[in-house]
Amino acid sequence: MPQHRRIDADGHPTVAELEDSIRTNQPSSIGLLAVERKAVRDVIGYCGLIDGGRGAGGEPELAFELLRRVWGQGYATEASLAVLDWARSSGYERLWATVWEWNTASRRVLAKVGFTETERKEVDAVYGTTLFTTRRL
Ligand SMILES: CC(C)(COP(=O)(O)OP(=O)(O)OC[C@H]1O[C@@H](n2cnc3c(N)ncnc32)[C@H](O)[C@@H]1OP(=O)(O)O)[C@@H](O)C(=O)NCCC(=O)NCCS
């Protein structure tokens, strides 16, 4: 993961800091939501919409990240479909998602929920190429 996504040498952000940030930034029509399993009632990650700074015309980006122990059970796909419904009901007409070219699992999730890859790419010599994908709602 790029440096800005890592826990720093002093242990920040801590779980408490992340919890505080989530609680004080309640989503309206944009934001990250906790993914909670209905049967177990545990939180297994986040999925939601982030401000599409890189997307055209202020359209939001879909983002998701789940705990490793729950990967491969369709949860990211299910959560993304729920977020697509939310985005549609909020009036957005199109979403974007950026993904590392090497991130096969994430690219597969995006394909399963209807995102298509565009011509747009950003190449980083250290971390690899970022692909820009989009989906009409
Ligand atoms: C990406 C991520 C959210 C996927 O979550 P998940 O719940 O495992 O996703 P799903 O189970 O819904 O779907 C994963 C798909 O990728 C496929 N897949 C996973 N790893 C794969 C690999 N190495 N090669 C090929 N396919 C792979 C799975 O088979 C599945 O596709 P299928 O349904 O056609 O079989 C999870 O891996 C994660 O949190 N990764 C770290 C954070 C991250 O990369 N976030 C996205 C940033 S763009």
Automatic annotation (TrEMBL):
A molecular function GO annotation: acyltransferase activity, transferring groups other than amino-acyl groups
Domain named N-acetyltransferase: residues: 1-137
Alphabetical list of InterPro entries matching this protein: Acyl_CoA_acyltransferase, GNAT_dom, N-acetyltransferase
A Pfam family of this chain: Acetyltransf_3
Chain coiled-coil ranges: none
PANTHER family on file: GNAT FAMILY, PUTATIVE (AFU_ORTHOLOGUE AFUA_3G00765)-RELATED-RELATED, N-ACETYLTRANSFERASE DOMAIN-CONTAINING PROTEIN
Protein name as catalogued: N-acetyltransferase domain-containing protein
